[in-house]
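Lab manual, section 2.4: Encoding a predicted structure.

Procedure: take the sequence of the chain (264 residues), apply the prediction step described in section 2.3, and record the output as structure tokens. A sample record is shown.
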Amino acid sequence: MPDPVALRSPRHLAFFDFMFTRFFAKHMRALRVARWGLPELPEGKPAVIFANHPSWWDGVAFMLLYRRLLPERPLFTPMDAAALEKYRFMKRLGVFGIETGSARGSVAFLRVVEKVLANPAHILWINAPGRFSDPRERPVPIAPGMIRLPEMAPEAVFVPLALDYPFWTERKAEMLAAFGTPIPAATLLEAPREARSAMLSDALAGVMEKLSADAIARDPTAFQTLVQGREGMGGIYQAWRRAKALLRGERFDPRHEQRAETAP
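Recorded output:
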């Protein structure tokens, strides 16, 4: 398996951060992080950020969150090897392929993780369920390989990350995120393997429930906005509304619901 640490390219990361941000702004309303759920990672320890897996957008979420909140902590994330061959450029971004559904693939994955997390600056971002799962599914599924990760990196911390994509008042969905309290690998290692899955599931579910409450409240001021997408309907109708406001000498607001939002 190619070495993801050696393949990672800061130049490629900067370019594709620009491209991902542009793509996001076109198709989503905003990336928001709960103010109570900003990441607080201890220095000098590698980290495993384990997230739920509700959407195709999760990989984009990883990249945008990493570049804006933890840019000094290099990102590495696994992806199905067959799928990665369709997006080979992602190998330059810290993405590495894994062969799913085989013992050989599991062993290779753990070896790569061990090498990645040997550097205390590195972070492994991973979708804990190992498959797409609805954010309302309980218990939150945890892939079998997750319970072995503390053994590969006993000095690491494990940080739950909740992701949600609700529609509020605009035609585009929100990308909502919140990080939970870091769990030392040593705490997980104190428990037998069969108990670790429940510990990770419960920790992730707790953050997901709290984020869900904020999503239901639909209050943008409860979040820090990291990326703002394009507002309004777009097209001819929005152009007509803009011209109408200009003729009246009014400031044009493209939003469907015009409510105050605090600055990022």
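Check your result against the sample. The CA atoms of residues 38 and 204 lie 15 Å apart.
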